[in-house]
Amino acid sequence: MVLVVLLAAGAIVPSFSAAAFADRPPWSGNPHNPGMGLIGVVDTTNGTDCNWTTSTASDTKGGVSFRMKVPSTISTIQNSGQPSKGVNIHASFAGEDGFYREVGLYYGSWTAQSGIGYDPNKFQFAYGIGDSQGGKLRGVLNLPVVAGHTVELSFIYLNSAGQWQVWYDDLNDGTGVQAINVGGSGIRVKSDYAIFVESNTIGPNSNTQALGLVEIMNVQSAIKIVGDGVSMSTWADGFVVSNCAVSNQSYGVDNLTPAGHFKFGYGGTQKTNGFQLW
């Protein structure tokens, strides 16, 4: 496997964190404003709780990884020319500093650090690490986003590098893993892991509806990291998060097999908050 480390300007950031949306009001809760995390799946011991931060940080610096099939509808959304109606698919977790980190596929008007090359008019792979002012996209990878391709996106801690890294891998193009160093060596995970389809508006918008169902092949957490090796394990449990946001009508999750395989987003099967998929 080829591993290319990208140290682009602005890509290495200090020990901040948070989700990549605009400033959160006091009533927002974790991790997203009501109406923004439209539908999600959480690896948690309490699937009915909309706040999945944990009381203590993990003993190890782990991380999260997921495989998804890039939806065929991305061209429809881009051609609509409505970046004000942002949409993304991302996996996230909270650090022990209380802020969220995330990695995923983004389109539209999300708060982004200047100079990273984020273009709201097209889908891009990106990661978010916020600060006390709110969430912010901190880096993008200018790889082609190809409908129908299976991609693997990871936000993990690498011992040999001594810091957190974001990994991108298009499993159909044969180029191998590309990685970005994102710093934060002292931060441990202090939450369960989550994966969302998200809107930048209160409730659904036409782009989240056009996105339709997003197929997830596997969601994993890093359970053991030795040297350059990362041992991943499929989430032990997956719980639907559907009523932590406003106006979730027509958004749901369809469970596939084996464990960790599902489709979620607009048009999925309606499940109550905390419904266990596997």
What this model shows, in words?
By secondary structure, the chain is mainly β. The protein has helices at residues 74-80, 206-211; strands at 3-6, 37-43, 63-69, 87-94, 100-107, 124-129, 137-141, 150-158, 163-170, 177-183, 193-199, 213-226, 229-234, 239-241, 251-255, 262-266. A hairpin with a 6-residue loop joins strand 9 (163-170) and strand 10. The longest helix is centred in the N-terminal third of the chain and has 7 residues, at 74-80. Residues 1-32 have low confidence and may be disordered.
End-to-end CA span: 31 Å
User: Total number of β-strand segments?
Assistant: 16
Quaternary state of the chains: single chain
Please tell me how large the radius of gyration is. 17 Å
Secondary structure tally, helices: 2
| Helix-strand makeup class | mainly beta
Q: Helical content, roughly?
A: under 10%
Largest sheet: 9 strands, mixed
In one word, what is the shape? globular
Unreliable sequence segments:
1-32
* Strand residue percentage: 35-45%
Which series of helices and strands comes N to C? EEEHEEEEEEEEHEEEEE
Overall mean confidence score, pLDDT: 82
